[in-house]
Design brief:
The longest helix has 24 residues. The chain has 2 helices and no strands. The relative contact order is 0.13. It has one domain: MYOD Basic-Helix-Loop-Helix Domain, subunit B. With 77 residues, it is an all-alpha fold. Helices cover 58% and strands 0% of the residues. This is Transcription factor 24. It comes from Mesitornis unicolor. Pfam families: HLH.
Length: 77
Protein backbone atom coordinates (compact mmCIF):
# COMPACT_ATOMS: atom_id res chain seq x y z
CA UNK A 1 0.00 0.00 0.00
CA UNK A 2 2.80 2.44 0.84
CA UNK A 3 4.46 1.89 -2.53
CA UNK A 4 1.18 2.44 -4.34
CA UNK A 5 0.58 5.67 -2.42
CA UNK A 6 4.11 6.93 -3.19
CA UNK A 7 3.50 6.19 -6.86
CA UNK A 8 0.16 8.02 -6.79
CA UNK A 9 1.69 11.08 -5.11
CA UNK A 10 4.59 11.11 -7.57
CA UNK A 11 2.20 10.90 -10.53
CA UNK A 12 0.09 13.73 -9.13
CA UNK A 13 3.17 15.88 -8.50
CA UNK A 14 4.39 15.27 -12.06
CA UNK A 15 0.97 16.27 -13.44
CA UNK A 16 1.01 19.56 -11.51
CA UNK A 17 4.55 20.32 -12.70
CA UNK A 18 3.50 19.68 -16.31
CA UNK A 19 0.46 21.92 -15.88
CA UNK A 20 2.64 24.66 -14.40
CA UNK A 21 5.00 24.45 -17.41
CA UNK A 22 2.10 25.29 -19.74
CA UNK A 23 1.18 28.48 -17.91
CA UNK A 24 2.49 31.75 -19.35
CA UNK A 25 4.33 34.27 -17.19
CA UNK A 26 5.56 31.65 -14.72
CA UNK A 27 9.35 31.27 -14.70
CA UNK A 28 10.45 27.63 -14.87
CA UNK A 29 12.18 27.67 -11.48
CA UNK A 30 9.16 29.14 -9.66
CA UNK A 31 7.79 27.04 -6.83
CA UNK A 32 4.01 27.18 -6.65
CA UNK A 33 1.60 25.35 -4.43
CA UNK A 34 -0.93 23.04 -6.05
CA UNK A 35 -3.63 25.57 -5.22
CA UNK A 36 -1.68 28.35 -6.95
CA UNK A 37 -1.21 26.18 -10.05
CA UNK A 38 -4.94 25.45 -10.15
CA UNK A 39 -5.84 29.12 -9.67
CA UNK A 40 -3.50 30.20 -12.44
CA UNK A 41 -4.75 27.48 -14.77
CA UNK A 42 -8.41 28.33 -14.22
CA UNK A 43 -7.89 32.06 -14.66
CA UNK A 44 -5.82 31.45 -17.80
CA UNK A 45 -8.53 29.18 -19.21
CA UNK A 46 -11.12 31.87 -18.42
CA UNK A 47 -8.93 34.44 -20.20
CA UNK A 48 -8.61 32.21 -23.27
CA UNK A 49 -12.37 31.61 -23.28
CA UNK A 50 -13.06 35.37 -23.14
CA UNK A 51 -10.51 35.95 -25.90
CA UNK A 52 -12.18 33.41 -28.14
CA UNK A 53 -15.61 34.89 -27.43
CA UNK A 54 -14.27 38.37 -28.22
CA UNK A 55 -12.79 37.04 -31.46
CA UNK A 56 -16.16 35.59 -32.47
CA UNK A 57 -17.82 38.94 -31.79
CA UNK A 58 -15.12 41.03 -33.54
CA UNK A 59 -13.26 38.87 -36.09
CA UNK A 60 -9.89 40.10 -37.30
CA UNK A 61 -8.84 41.93 -34.15
CA UNK A 62 -6.57 39.20 -32.79
CA UNK A 63 -6.79 37.55 -29.39
CA UNK A 64 -6.49 40.78 -27.47
CA UNK A 65 -4.47 41.35 -24.34
CA UNK A 66 -4.59 40.00 -20.82
CA UNK A 67 -7.06 41.99 -18.81
CA UNK A 68 -6.78 42.70 -15.13
CA UNK A 69 -10.19 41.25 -14.37
CA UNK A 70 -9.26 37.65 -13.75
CA UNK A 71 -5.69 36.86 -14.70
CA UNK A 72 -3.68 37.10 -11.51
CA UNK A 73 -0.33 35.63 -10.66
CA UNK A 74 -0.44 34.32 -7.08
CA UNK A 75 3.32 34.36 -6.51
CA UNK A 76 4.21 36.79 -3.78
CA UNK A 77 7.29 38.87 -4.51
Amino acid sequence: NAARERSRVQTLRHAFLELQKTLPSVPPDTKLSKLDVLLLATTYIAHLTRSLQDEEESPGEGLGTLRGDGYLHPVKV
